[in-house]
Design a protein that fits this description.
This protein is α/β, with parallel strands linked by helices and 191 residues long. It contains ten helices and five strands; from the N terminus they run βαβαααβαβααααβα. The protein has a five-stranded parallel beta sheet. Bound molecules: adenosine monophosphate. Adenosine monophosphate is lined by residues 10, 32-33, 36, 53-54, 57-60, 65, 86-87, 89, 93, 136, 146.
Length: 191
């Protein structure tokens, strides 16, 4: 199996690039943000609890997202692999993911971290906010908070994979196609 963590701050292009890569490598896209937004759309109890946290740009509790990933892995037991997008966002989530995969005799093949300058992130998120309809993209203060939460709680996850020699940093600036080509080059090295 090819199991990739596509990592980076909000606005780095994880979702956009995941869509290209799942086609090329026949992988399952596992975005905790998308899963949470569909819980909200379906007005489930979990969605109702998550909404106010997401609207503030904070992180929902680890056990909630880990539980969603656990069932996603079960639902796609015969997959060729997964792209984890927006997960893990804390070191505790990274440890839980390793355990979930180990219990299925699987492991993470690599973490690919998209590197994008802060100013570019804010511009991309504000642009996306005009069309995405996401409340957390529409407000500059919430965007600032999401970037702060990323720097405080999520950026350390990189060291977790670096310690396992699984961290690959990729330049996330430029055109979508140029970034896809860089990602594919990195992935070819992992296959
Ligand atoms: P995203 O679509 O990845 O930008 O996620 C949108 C929001 O969903 C985040 O700002 C968090 O509030 C929540 N979220 C998504 N993934 C996670 C995660 N792995 N851990 C905690 N909260 C998450």
């Amino acid at each position: 199996m090819l199991n990739l963590v596509l990592f980076g701050p909000p606005g780095a292009g994880k979702g956009t690039q995941s869509k290209q890569l799942i086609d090329t490598y026949q992988l399952i896209h596992c975005s905790t943000g998308d899963l949470l937004r569909s819980e909200i759309a379906n007005e489930t109890e979990l969605g109702q609890r998550a909404k106010s946290i997401m609207d503030r740009g904070e992180l929902v509790p680890d056990e909630v997202v880990v539980g969603m990933i656990d069932s996603m892995l079960d639902r796609h037991a015969d997959a060729r692999g997964f792209i984890f997008d927006g997960f893990p966002r804390t070191t505790a989530q990274a440890e839980a993911l390793d355990q979930l995969l180990a219990s299925r005799n699987e492991s993470i093949s690599g973490m690919i971290a998209l590197e994008v300058a802060d100013d570019e992130l804010k511009n991309r998120l504000l642009e996306r906010g005009k069309i995405s309809g996401r409340p957390d993209d529409a407000n500059p203060e919430i965007i600032e908070n999401r970037i702060r939460v990323y720097n405080d709680q999520t950026a350390p996850v990189k060291s977790y994979y670096a310690q396992q020699q699984k961290l690959f940093e990729v330049d996330g600036m430029g055109t979508i196609a140029a970034i896809t080509a860089r990602l594919e080059q990195t992935i070819e090295g992992l296959i």
